[in-house]
Recover the amino acids of this structure.
């Protein structure tokens, strides 16, 4: 399957640079994969499409202020770190710019010495393994020195840090936000619960590999980066009950989808409490075992994310929906509008 089949022209002015003041006021394109129809709504209207007994699955990962600016210990050269994932204790995998300046043994200083890092391993594409040294609690030091790692297509400064977090973010560890969840407020979640819809939480710490365009010519050649996930017993039980009753499992975001599909593929469509690493790659031809419906944002051309939603619906209908979204001037990517793929 050719990667160029998932390409489209996106006017740059449609890339949302700032979040809307009210999270639920974004637009919603509803795609019904059974009737092959499209509807234009507001995100707050999504409540109308949920039914009592459905289970809504949210990713409660919390974005780390993972961008750090420091200097080399010996030359004072400026160095930028982006934390990707914790390997063990104080050893992390990071992206570094400029990579050529950070070799094995290189020491980088942040915040006048509050935090230091020593390179202990070299990786591909500018990645490094570093060991951090500090006093106190690492996440508190990071909160003091770090900046939110906004995607490169967002050039505006983010005034409020928490607008790149979901309102239910809880478990620290992500290099990027699960952006489909940015549309939800506490009030909307309360209304969803009042309607008899179950709300379940999983954790998947988002890595940057999720958002990178596929560089291979064919989809089958592409390899996904691994991301850490966790599903607890309460959520596993709730999902099994939902399925057994014949109700729908609705995921918020591709991260929740990939987590549930990883688990369900292992256990023939059922769910068990577990944690681990997943590099599941979902593209057309994939047979879904876990989910029925998906709430998602509008994605980059040729990305693994547009391939995933094309697998859940079909490529032709997704491309038609995107064409219509562009004509109607929907806002794209992290701070943009949403799509609901239903049945």
């Amino acid at each position: 399957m050719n990667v160029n089949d998932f390409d489209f022209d996106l006017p740059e002015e449609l890339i949302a640079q700032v979040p809307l003041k009210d999270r639920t006021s974004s637009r919603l394109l509803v795609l019904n994969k059974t009737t092959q129809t499209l509807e234009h709504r507001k995100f707050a209207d999504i409540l109308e499409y949920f039914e009592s007994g459905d289970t809504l699955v949210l990713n409660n990962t919390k974005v780390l202020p993972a961008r750090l600016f420091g200097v080399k210990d010996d030359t004072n050269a400026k160095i930028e770190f982006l934390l990707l994932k914790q390997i063990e204790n104080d050893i992390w995998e990071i992206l570094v710019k400029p990579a050529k300046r950070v070799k094995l043994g290189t020491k980088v200083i942040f915040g006048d010495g509050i935090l230091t890092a020593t390179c202990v391993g070299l990786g591909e594409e500018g990645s490094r393994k570093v060991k951090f040294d500090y006093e106190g609690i690492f996440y508190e030091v990071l909160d003091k020195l770090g900046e939110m790692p906004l995607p490169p297509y967002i050039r505006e400064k983010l005034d409020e840090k928490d607008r790149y977090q979901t309102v239910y973010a809880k478990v620290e560890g992500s290099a990027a936000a699960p952006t489909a969840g940015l549309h939800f407020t506490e009030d909307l979640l309360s209304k969803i619960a009042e309607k008899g819809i179950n709300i379940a939480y999983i954790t998947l710490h988002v890595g940057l590999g999720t958002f990178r365009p596929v560089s291979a010519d064919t989809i089958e050649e592409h390899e996904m980066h691994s991301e850490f996930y966790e599903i607890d017993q309460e959520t596993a039980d709730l999902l099994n009950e939902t399925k057994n009753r014949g109700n729908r499992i609705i995921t918020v975001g591709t991260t929740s989808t990939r987590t549930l599909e990883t688990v369900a593929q292992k256990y023939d469509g059922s769910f068990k409490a577990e944690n681990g690493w997943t590099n599941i790659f979902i593209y057309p031809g994939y047979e879904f075992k876990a989910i029925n419906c998906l709430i998602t944002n509008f994605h980059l051309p040729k990305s693994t994310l547009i391939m995933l939603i094309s697998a859940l619906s079909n490529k032709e209908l997704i491309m038609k929906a995107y064409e219509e979204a562009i004509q109607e001037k929907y806002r794209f990517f992290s701070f943009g509008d949403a799509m609901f793929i239903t049945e």
